[in-house]
What does this fold into?
Amino acid sequence: MHKPYLILISCLFFLTGCSDYQWGWYVLNPNTEQGSANLKFLVSGFYDTISISLISMALAMIIGLFIAFLALSDSRLLRLINRVYVEVIRSIPVLVLLLWVYYGMPTLLEVSLTHFWAGVITLSIAESAFLAEVFRGGIQSISSGQHESAESLGLTYWQKMRLVILPQAVRQMLPPLGNQFVYILKMSSLVSVIGLNDLTRKANELVVNEYLPLEIYSVLVIEYLVLILFVSQGVRMLEKKLEIPRH
It folds into this structure.
């Protein structure tokens, strides 16, 4: 199940012994004072990476669900708003959107914006367009019989969605939702461009100080691999827990 990760990490360490390059792993050796300090500095970026990813995912789900309901509306205008929003946001590169939010929004709205919240706003907006399609597809995958049964019980539209349709749709949407969270984790590395002290920013600063980019960026790769591996495993466990038994 985890073979791709193990193979990649194994290849990375194998390459350290079959090249003429003089590896400087001492820079991250936990048994030395310098290496221990560098290692702690490097992993200290985990907090910002995880924080910005979790907050962005939560906000993106809220926005995405709202945009998805527009697509399910009987109003042509609301459906048009959904299509315009989804197509426009999905067409803008995340880095370009990040730069616009960080440098343009404070000028336009005359407000101050920190690195962290600029990243949260950018990732939430960018991800919401993809999640809107995930939610729309998940809701539409529920059979019409479920809708009719809920309506026959006298439930309102929102009661039907909250009590009948969405709980069933979550099972269908869980795998793509997990994939989108992994996507946010990876895209959070772009926020280092505007100065957020995430894993990538810490690695960049350490490279400037130590002049050993190959070693430091190799560890950065492993950090992201481990982080995403845990997320993927968590999603799989949740899928099994919510899976409907088949007899």
In short: Residues 23-45+197-237 form one domain.
